């Protein structure tokens, strides 16, 4: 009576204890159910899929951002402003003026530097909040998908910072402006206005509408009462310059240019504050 050799079932290279009767259509190795990745033709192993994805060029938007169908950052910023506004109202009833603790005042800027950014999440009357959040939602829904999330967030935050820095630079210690409280996301919103203009120019689209909005808001800033045109100007310049780098950076070096421009803008703004503070304090 003859004996037949017992054949050993193939096993998955990643899971040697698991029998694998299906083979990868690319490398031909056995692949267990846990490591199988369905494809239009047969299945692939996870190693082949990972190698294929690593060699595939990442899809980017026309301005170099990662494609996104949502506006997560825009929604997050709006939610933050609304939550802070509710906190302002609730704490105000408890005699805790949140705006005076976090709003921007040039005289207190150096001792409490967080005010440069925290002020952008505070607002005055309800209409002030409503207009800024409406503008943020409209502009963000267009810019965030084009720029990508981190570039959009960088423009927003640095524009807000640029608005506070401009207030600090133009305020005189001998004037009332030095102790005047400023709150609002208007500097950041003006930065988004400037970014929209730059993007429209870069894409060859009509800019008459955004120019009209900028002119209208500039007139309101200059003629309106209790409006910080300095903050608007600072946000406008910061957002516009940063957006120009994002928009016209070489296609194959957009990420590098974007990071350098973002870090560089932050360093320049901080340097301007330090130089201004030395001039205010004087020698000795």
Q: Beta-strand percentage?
A: under 5%
CATH-scheme architecture: Up-down Bundle
Low-confidence segments, ≥5 residues, pLDDT <50? none
The sequence of SSEs as H and E is EEEEHHHHHHHHHH
The first-to-last residue Cα distance is 108 Å
Number of structural domains = 1
Biggest sheet details: 2 strands, antiparallel
- Rg for CA atoms: 27 Å
* Overall shape: elongated
- Given the helix and strand composition, which structural class is it? mainly alpha
> Can you count the helices?
10
Overall helicity: 55-70%
Q: What's a concise summary of this model?
A:
The protein has 284 residues and is mainly alpha-helical. It has helices at residues 46-55, 72-93, 98-102, 115-118, 126-147, 149-170, 186-202, 208-223, 229-248, 254-281, and strands at 22-23, 30-31, 36-38, 43-45. It has 10 helices and 4 strands.
What's the helix and strand layout?
Layout: E1 22-23, E2 30-31, E3 36-38, E4 43-45, H1 46-55, H2 72-93, H3 98-102, H4 115-118, H5 126-147, H6 149-170, H7 186-202, H8 208-223, H9 229-248, H10 254-281
Antiparallel strand pairs: 1-2, 3-4
Give a description of the structure:
With 284 residues, this protein is mostly helical. It has one domain (72-281): Rhomboid-like (Rhomboid-like fold). The chain contains 10 helices and 4 strands. The strands form 2 sheets. A two-stranded antiparallel sheet has the order 1-2. Strands 3-4 form a two-stranded antiparallel ribbon. Helix 5 runs parallel beside helix 7 (186-202), helix 6 (149-170) runs parallel beside helix 10 and helix 9 packs antiparallel against helix 10. The radius of gyration is 27 Å and the shape is elongated. The chain starts with 21 loop residues before the first strand and ends with a helix. The model has no long low-confidence stretch (mean pLDDT 87). One of its GO terms (biological process) is proteolysis. Belongs to the peptidase S54 family. The chain crosses the membrane at residues 76-96, 116-140, 152-172, 178-198, 210-227, 233-249, 256-279. It is found in: Membrane. Residues 111-247 form the Peptidase S54 rhomboid domain.
